[in-house]
Amino acid sequence: MSDSSDDEFQPLEPTLKNVLDQNSLHWIFVGGKGGVGKTTTSCSLAVQLSKVRESVLLISTDPAHNLSDAFGQKFSKEATLVNGFENLYAMEIDPTSSIQEMIDQSEQGNAMGSMVQDLAYAIPGVDEAMGFAEVMKQVKSMKYSVIVFDTAPTGHTLRFLSFPTVLEKALAKISGLSGRFGPMFQQVSGMMGLNANQEDMFSKLEEMRSVITEVNNQFKDPNITTFICVCISEFLSLYETERMIQELTAYHIDTHNIVVNQLLFPKEGSNCEHCNVRHKMQQKYLEQIYDLYEDFHIVRMPLLTKEVRGTEDIKDFSKMLIEPYQAPKAE
């Protein structure tokens, strides 16, 4: 936070080096509006983290997966080692196949099984639920020293991050009801011919609740979790970023880094009218970003003349997250 005793405010370092230096971080979320370069940023950050951490897992919770395209390598729901690395793994969560797997594991031909199936496909935000289930698995194993999330566009991400609080409250109520309605539940399930072991079910719910409480506590701990906002220097993206930061603050989730992608840096004396007009517009919104978020690390990334695809491109791009980009001088 800014120090009011300073006569003149000094902006924070315009890099993500602070993220690399914070060894206690275990969860890093990268998110923003669609099409602002979240995947490229999350892949680049994961590459840089792999240099300073023992093991890094990059998870895509966006139903439109791009990790495979970014690295030029096919990923699945199982963590796979990224080609060219010894400690960087990636995985893409597919909500549809995860639901089917869950249904297959329930008893075949069972009335409960078909009910679970109908319920599962009808739940709004099922993508976030499956993403959250994966988080819970990772919490139990704690196999990786840091986990980076390439998240879905803003709305989905905020729902995903509010999941622990919602589930924790719901399960607390169910646990409270179990004592009062347990015997009745046993009778009803017996009448319906369901082979339900009530004690087993409630003990599983209680176990799930303790894991969710743990996740909730970790997400709200700034030493363990942080959220990196990615945007471009335009009105809609800036508006979305402000909304996201306000909601993250309401959820008590730490955020103090903003990556501004696709910035134009026209050479001095350039006579490209389009470049100069766009640059002027971007500078206007960039100034607003600096005014609004003076206690954030604001990383400026250039608009490149080519796509960032493949491991080598990502490695090159990732360097600019750590060393501020210098615009080329006019010849």
Word description of this protein:
This protein has 331 residues and is α/β, with parallel strands linked by helices. Helix content is 52%, strand content 13%. The chain is built from eleven helices and eight strands. The protein has an eight-stranded mixed sheet, sandwiched between helices. Strand 7, helix 10 and strand 8 form a beta-alpha-beta unit. Helix 4 packs antiparallel against helix 5 (111-122). The radius of gyration is 23 Å and the shape is globular. The two termini are 40 Å apart. Mean pLDDT is 79; it is low at 1-7.
Low-confidence stretches: 1-7
User: Largest beta sheet: what is the strand line-up?
Assistant: 3-4-2-5-1-6-7-8
> Mean pLDDT across all residues, rounded?
79
What percentage of residues falls in helices of 4 or more residues?
Answer: 40-55%
Distance, first to last CA:
40 Å
Number of strands: 8
Beta percentage is 5-15%
Count of DSSP H/I helices: 11
Question: Shape, please?
Answer: globular
Radius of gyration: 23 Å
SSE sequence, one letter per element: HEHEHEEHHHEHHEHEHEH
The main sheet comes to: 8 strands, mixed
The computed structural class is alpha/beta
